[in-house]
Amino acid sequence: MIKYKIHTQVQTKKSQHRCGVSKTGKPFMYTSSAYELWESDVSTALSVQRLESEYPCVDYECWARILIYRQYNRIADLSNLIQSIEDALQRAGCIENDRLIRSLDGSRVYHGVNGNEARFEVVLAPFIEGRA
Fold it and tell me: What are the sequence ranges of the domains in the chain?
């Protein structure tokens, strides 16, 4: 079982998109620099934890439990938060490809924690077909 814990306020990727216009005049969506900075910082922290703990890169099908502790009380979309974390795990080399996550068991968002307690916790374990 592989465990990660990062102290940060999780940002969603989808709410951070901006609209632009290409050189040919076609509109396109791009991710904001604030999200890119967040993902870079989180990926670095995840990489450091992985190397310090000597966890291997997950290159097999696995299940994940992602617990998100948010400072804000407004309701956030769990799937968008999880997608941001999965992308950061992949970018950090913790998992080869986020498609390998076959199940998200017990993932939750907790709202209203103190600002310095905002964090997310990830547990990865091998996926076994038919296991409840």
Answer: 2-126
pTM reported for the whole predicted model: 0.85
Q: What is the full per-residue pLDDT of the chain (132 aa) written as tens digits?
A: 999 999 999 888 766 666 778 888 888 776 778 888 999 999 999 999 999 999 999 999 999 999 999 988 777 888 989 999 999 999 999 999 999 999 998 899 998 888 788 999 999 999 988 765
Secondary structure element (H or E) that encloses residue 51, with its range: helix 33-53
CATH topology of domain 2-126: 60s Ribosomal Protein L30; Chain: A; (3.30.1330)
For residue 7, CA distances in Å to 42, 52, 115, 119 come to 9, 17, 10, 4
Distance between CA 51 and CA 114 in Å, rounded? 29
